[in-house]
Amino acid sequence: MKAFIVDRYGSADRMQLGEVPQPQLRDDDVLIEIHAAGVNPLDSKIRDGEFKLLLPYRLPLILGNELAGVVVRVGSRVQRFKPGDEVYARVDKKRIGTFAQFIAVSEEDLAIKPKSLTMEEAASVPLVGLTAWQALVETAKLKKGQKVLIHAGSGGVGTFAIQLAKYLGATVATTTSTANIELVKRLGADVVIDYKKNAFEEILRDYDVVLNSLDAETLKKSVRVLKPGGKLISISGPPDPAFARQIGLSRIFGLVMRFLSFRIRKLAKRHQVDYSFLFMRASGDQLRQIGLLIDTGAIRPILDRVFPFESTKEAMSYVETGRAKGKVVVKIR
Ligand SMILES: NC(=O)c1ccc[n+]([C@@H]2O[C@H](COP(=O)([O-])OP(=O)(O)OC[C@H]3O[C@@H](n4cnc5c(N)ncnc54)[C@H](OP(=O)(O)O)[C@@H]3O)[C@@H](O)[C@H]2O)c1
Question: How many whole angstroms from 24 Cα to the centroid of ligand 1?
C-alpha cells in the first residue's frame, strides 16, 4: 500500500511517499481502508521528533493520527464492526499511521462515522472533537450557565470546542484575529476578543474555565480571568506531574514535569485556580457520543481545505502556518 513514511526525525524533507506492506491484524483489530485523514499540528511535531521521549516510535514511521474510512476485515474477537461499515477514529497514539491507504485499529478506538458527514468531514473530527470533549466534559465538567474562555477559536480545536461548550449551555468567550470574528460568532461565541486589538486578560473576569492552546505567556495571563476555584486546562503545555502519573511515566519524567510546570502551578495556586495539562487520548465511546451531537445538528465540523493524498506534505505545511480556519484534511480515496 501507499503511505507517507518518516525514516528519520527531522524536517519536512524526511517524509516520503512510499510502498509498505499492509498492516497485520490483531484479534481485536479492524482493518480499515482509509478514505480521508485529518491533519493536525501534532503530525509535524511527531515528524520533527518533538515527541520522541514521550512517544518512542520505532522508525520508519507512518504519520497521521485520525481517519475516516470503510472496514475491510475484522479480527476474530471483534464484536461491534463488520466489513462495509463506515467508521472514524483517532487511532491510539502508539499505533499511528493514517497517511496511508490502510490501517489496523483496535475496535475500542473506533466508532461508526456520523451519517450526516462526508468522509472528508468525518476525518476532521476525531482528534479535535475528543480533545474538546476531554477538556470540557471530562476535565472541566462544564455546566449550563458557566463561563468558558476558549483560546484560538478559529483553529481546529477552537471551532469544535466553541460549539461543544455552547451545546453544554455555557457562555463562551474566544480570542481570534479580525479576519475570523464572523466565523467564531457563527459558531456561537458570545464574547469575541480580537487579539490584535485588545488584551483578553483586561476584559474578561470571573470565568469558570479556560481552555488554552497557545503559548506560555497566554497561559499565564489566563489565570487572571478565572474566578477562585476555576479551572485552567492547557493542551499546549507545560505537562504536569499528574499527566506523568496518568500515562505511567517514570519518576524521573515525573520530576521533569514537576519542574516544567512549577511556575504555572505556583501562579495558579496563588489565584486559587486549578491547573491541568491534557494530552487527549483515543476513545471509540466518546466518538460515538460526539457522532450523535453531529447527527442531531448540534455541532458541525469546519473544514478549511482538502488536499489530495499526494499533497500531504503541502497539507502539513499549510497547518504549520498556524492560520488554518478549522481543519485541514487529505483525501486518500
Ligand atoms: N494536548 C492535546 O491533546 C492537543 C490536542 C489538540 C491540539 N493540541 C495543540 O493545540 C494547539 C492548537 O491546535 P489546533 O489544531 O487548534 O491548531 P490550528 O488549527 O493550527 O490553529 C490555528 C488557529 O490558531 C489561531 N491563532 C493563532 N495564534 C493565535 C492567537 N495568538 N490568539 C488567538 N488565535 C490564534 C489562528 O487564527 P488567526 O489566523 O486568527 O490568528 C488559526 O485559526 C497546537 O499546538 C496543537 O498541537 C494539543
Answer: 34
Tell me how far the alpha carbon of residue 166 lies from the centroid of ligand 1, in angstroms.
19
The DSSP code sequence of 241-290 is: HHHHHHTT--HHHHHHHHHHTHHHHHHHHHTT-EEEE------HHHHHHH
Rounded-to-integer distance, Cα 51 and Cα 39, Å: 17
What pLDDT, in 10s, does the model give residues 263-275? 999 999 999 999 9
Distance 140 CA to ligand 1 centre (A): 19
Integer Cα distance of 121 and 37 in angstroms: 10
The bridge status of strand 29-39 relative to strand 102-106 is antiparallel
Segments of the chain assigned E as strands: 2-6, 15-19, 29-39, 61-62, 66-74, 86-90, 102-106, 110-112, 147-150, 171-176, 191-194, 207-212, 226-234, 274-277, 303-308, 327-331
- Report helix, strand or coil for 67: strand
Predicted TM-score (pTM) of the model is 0.98
- What are the pocket residues of ligand 1 if the criterion is a CB atom closer than 6 Å to any ligand atom? 40-42, 127-128, 131, 151-152, 154-158, 175-177, 180, 195, 213-214, 235-236, 278-280, 319, 322-325
* Total number of residues shown for the chain: 333
pLDDT for residue 212:
98
Name the band, by pLDDT with cuts 50, 70 and 90, for residue 53: confident
The residue nearest atom 12 of ligand 1, judged by CA position, is: 213
Mutation probe of ligand 1 site: the residue of 235, 261, 325 with most atoms within 8 A of C-beta: 235
Residue nearest to atom 28 of ligand 1 (CA): 152
**How far is 284 from 96, CA to CA, in rounded Å?**
15
